[in-house]
Amino acid sequence: AETTLYSTLNVDPEEYTIKAPDSTELTELVSGLKSKLDIESLSIEDNYTVLQAQSTTESIELQLDSTWLFEPQLAVNSALTISPDDLQPDLSVTASLSFGLDDWKADDINELKAELEISEESERQTISSEELKLSQAITAAETAEINYAAATVELEQAEELLEEAEFLFELGDYSEAELEETELQYKQSLNNLFAAASEHYSSLRTLSG
């Protein structure tokens, strides 16, 4: 369980030594991270994957809105003449519109409509997928919290049994083997608490990330 804790905290046990915290310290560690989260307010509104999918759809919509059914060619001609009588310049400008088969954009519009339909479906799937991931992460955090609470109670009970065993051993009412067995049960409960704390901490980090 301690190895799991080192891994969760991304710490090399050969370079750093983590003092095994007691139940109170573990509670403060997990509670500190939990206090920074408001699980009820979590949503996918700022999710990068969702925003990217929405941006793609909006980009295609803009392209579609700015594409005309036809785009005629505009030709502008100008001519400058100078009269030999008064030497005054005379500027004339003419404009003309021409239409050809290449100017019709029906195929381009139909292609953009198809792309938009695909993008909208992809966006819906992305939103559904990210909502499911968030729901699963919240469920995992809630389950981890329940497991952590149960492990905390288990350790408290193990501590009480160990204190009682040590007292009975001093009185001579407990054998050394019975004391060692109680000590092993306490260590197992402590390991269970480490594992539950690691699971709870990881689930909260997933939500905070």
Describe the structure.
By secondary structure, the protein is mainly alpha-helical. It contains five helices and two strands, in the order αααββαα. Helix 2 packs parallel to helix 5, helix 3 packs antiparallel against helix 4 and helix 4 packs antiparallel against helix 5. It is rod-shaped and about 135 Å long. The mean pLDDT is 80.
- Average pLDDT level: 80
Order of helices and strands: HHHEEHH
**N-to-C terminal Cα separation, in Å?**
24 Å
Uncertain regions spanning at least 5 consecutive residues: none
Biggest sheet: strand arrangement: 1-2
Strand content: 5-15%
Shape: rod-shaped
The major pleated sheet works out as: 2 strands, antiparallel
Strand segment tally: 2
Helix/strand structural class: mainly alpha
Query: What's the tally of helices?
Result: 5
For the CA atoms, what is the radius of gyration?
37 Å
Helical coverage, percent range: 55-70%
Give short descriptive properties of this protein.
mainly alpha; 5 helices; 209 residues
SSE blueprint:
Layout: H1 2-8, H2 23-34, H3 48-65, E1 73-82, E2 89-98, H4 106-171, H5 176-208
Antiparallel strand pairs: 1-2
Short description:
By secondary structure, this protein is mostly helical. It is built from five helices and two strands, in the order H-H-H-E-E-H-H.
